[in-house]
Design a protein that fits this description.
mainly alpha, 16 helices, Tetratricopeptide repeat protein
């Protein structure tokens, strides 16, 4: 990709196609901190309905200085228009395919005429005795649409959950070497504290103090009001199956008219959970 091509799709991001997506992948490999290239590459994956989109969204967020800009970008109308155009083009290509049914019927009629009546009767009996080939039922992953691009549609809470790239790692600090002099100094300070407490009996430790939890500090949060189908899918993509089940249970209470759909998804998640154990 040359400079003119890059400038063109930068000014007209709706023009990103499969060829551009491949070229942008090479660019971000060479220049990983080029945020505009990562955003355009992400848009190309969304256009292809690629299973890599969800993972690449997290990577793009890690390289983005202002994630609110990225959130506004992926939830904008222009971003979703590209995928609609992609499916419209594919549908138009399929509709242009002409199917000549008359030749197939004529060939089948000629074949039946050439078969002896006795043979036709035997073939008919075999066909009736043979079990019908059942259509392949969709897998659990297909039913739950695992790997499909997530549509946040303004849900910043779900978007924040998805951007949990990794668990927080503790900062490794070097343990200072404690010398004998340090121990003596520490003992002297403790002795001073003990004498101070003895001389001031009015100071007493606080009794029956309840520990302040994170939930208490933040206040009571209404989990149900924050729960959405997208957030449930986020938990599913993160393979947090128990949280996903709990999310759909909340959604059943929140949207009783869709309880049957959510109950089926809970059953599928339990099957998926057993298969991955």
């Amino acid at each position: 990709m040359n400079v003119s091509d890059y400038t063109y799709i930068l000014n007209k991001p709706d023009a990103v196609n499969d060829r551009h997506t491949f070229a942008l992948e090479r660019i971000i490999h060479e220049f990983p901190y080029l945020q505009s290239a990562r955003a355009l590459h992400l848009k190309g994956l969304y256009n292809q309905d690629s299973f890599r989109y969800n993972q690449q969204l997290k990577v793009t967020a890690a390289y983005t200085t202002d994630r609110s800009v990225l959130f506004d970008f992926i939830t904008s109308g222009d971003f979703k228009t590209l995928q609609q155009q992609f499916f419209a083009e594919k549908e138009a290509m399929i509709r242009e395919i002409t199917v000549n049914e008359s030749e197939w019927v004529r060939w089948e009629t000629e074949l039946e005429a050439a078969i002896d009546p006795l043979e036709r009767s035997i073939l008919h009996s075999i066909k009736e005795a043979s079990p019908e080939t059942s259509q392949t039922s969709p897998t659990v992953e297909e039913k739950l649409q695992i790997g499909r691009p997530l549509d946040f549609s303004g849900e910043k809470h779900s978007f924040s959950e998805w951007l949990q790239l990794a668990s927080v790692k503790p900062i490794e600090r070097e343990t200072p070497h404690i010398t004998q002099d340090d121990n003596e100094e520490k003992k002297k300070k403790l002795a001073l504290i003990d004498r101070f407490i003895e001389a001031n009996p009015k100071i007493a430790p606080v009794r029956n103090s309840e520990p302040i939890t994170l939930a208490t500090a933040r206040g009571t949060e209404d989990t149900g009001s924050l729960m959405t189908e997208t957030l449930a899918k986020v938990y599913l993509e993160q393979k947090k199956y128990n949280k996903a089940i709990q999310a759909y249970e909340i959604l059943i209470l929140k949207y009783p008219e869709k309880s049957s759909l959510f109950a089926d998804r809970i059953s599928d998640i339990r099957i998926l959970q057993q298969n991955n154990n």
